[in-house]
Design a protein that fits this description.
Order of helices and strands: EHEHEEEEHEHEHEEEHEHHH
Largest sheet: 8 strands, mixed
CATH class: Alpha Beta
CATH architecture: 3-Layer(aba) Sandwich
CATH superfamily: P-loop containing nucleotide triphosphate hydrolases
Strand order of the largest sheet: 5-6-2-7-1-8-9-12
Number of helices: 9
Bound molecules: adenosine-5'-diphosphate
Distance between the termini: 23 Å
Number of domains: 1
Shape: globular
Helix content: 25-40%
Number of strands: 12
Structural class: alpha/beta
Length: 258
């Protein structure tokens, strides 16, 4: 399945690498990474997720993965493959338990990110989604420097405070000359868990995209099915969920030109 070269390094063929970043923690960056990966996988593409949020890895929880799924083979790591068939590498799959903190300074964190990129046998993938650490600090910088990202998607929410910080992420990407494909506005509105009605919860909606000359690729509502992903999985048959995944897949495929 996988080729090796003489240095015993994996030979990976990855067609598009998408970085998912956010100005702040808690806006749903990892949820957005999960939804992008799921949307593309459902369309029949091969997908991997590199969880480069070393100190706050959320991807294994979202997929309900337990420790130990990552195997070492020679000098490299074999990603964990989820039930959905998505390949995942995350710090939390290497720790004894997922509540154990990683108390490392920047250079070590950066090294871990580099290894997740260089020493992992991803094999052939259509898409690698890189769930980035929040903010614009040194590990985010390492991701941008070490991984040849084709396009960045910024996860945001319609709050004034978040909009201001989104601009920092966009300006960082510009400084690093990495294309920003657009924003995904999470928690954009609310879907009532009782009646299914759409509620515009945030009165002072801020369009941080137009301010920065960046388009909004998709809007994701706040809904019970999304908050329950880690315990119940994503009900992809649910009409509203299916519509959200379709919107995300369409936007990402258009940007990636695959
Ligand atoms: P981040 O990666 O930005 O820190 P997460 O993706 O971990 O954020 O999301 C933070 C919390 O918000 C999680 O508990 C997640 O389940 C919840 N959440 C995120 N997006 C939604 C949504 N659209 N609807 C409901 N809950 C959400």
């Amino acid at each position: 399945m996988m080729e090796k070269n003489t240095l015993d390094k994996p030979v990976n063929k990855i067609r598009k690498i998408i970085g998912v970043m956010s100005g702040k923690g808690g806006v749903g960056k990892s949820t957005v990474s999960y939804l992008i990966a799921s949307a593309l996988k459902l369309k029949g593409y091969t997908v991997g997720i590199l969880d480069s949020d070393i100190t706050g890895p959320s991807i294994p929880r979202l997929f309900n993965l337990k420790k130990g799924g990552i195997q070492a083979e020679g000098n490299y790591l074999i990603p964990f493959e989820t039930q959905q068939g998505i390949k995942v590498v995350s710090m939390n799959l290497l720790l004894e338990n997922d509540e154990q903190p990683v108390i490392w300074r920047g250079p070590l964190l950066s090294k871990a990110v580099q290894q997740f990129w260089e020493d992992v046998a991803w094999g052939e993938l259509d898409f690698l989604i890189v769930d980035m650490p929040p903010g614009t600090a040194d590990v985010a910088l390492t991701v941008m420097q070490a991984i040849p990202i084709n396009g960045l998607i910024v996860a945001t929410t319609p709050h004034e405070m978040v909009a201001m910080i989104v601009s920092k992420s966009i300006n960082m990407a510009k400084a690093m000359k990495i294309p920003v494909w657009g924003l995904i506005e999470n928690m954009s509105y609310l879907i009532c868990p009782e009646c299914g009605k759409k509620i515009d919860f945030f009165e002072n909606t801020v369009n941080s995209g137009s301010k920065n000359g960046v388009e909004i690729l998709a809007k994701i509502p706040m809904m019970r099915e999304i908050s329950a992903i880690s315990t119940k999985g994503l009900p992809v048959q649910n009409e509203k969920v299916a519509a959200i995944l379709e919107e995300i897949a369409e936007a990402v495929l258009k940007k990636s030109a695959l």
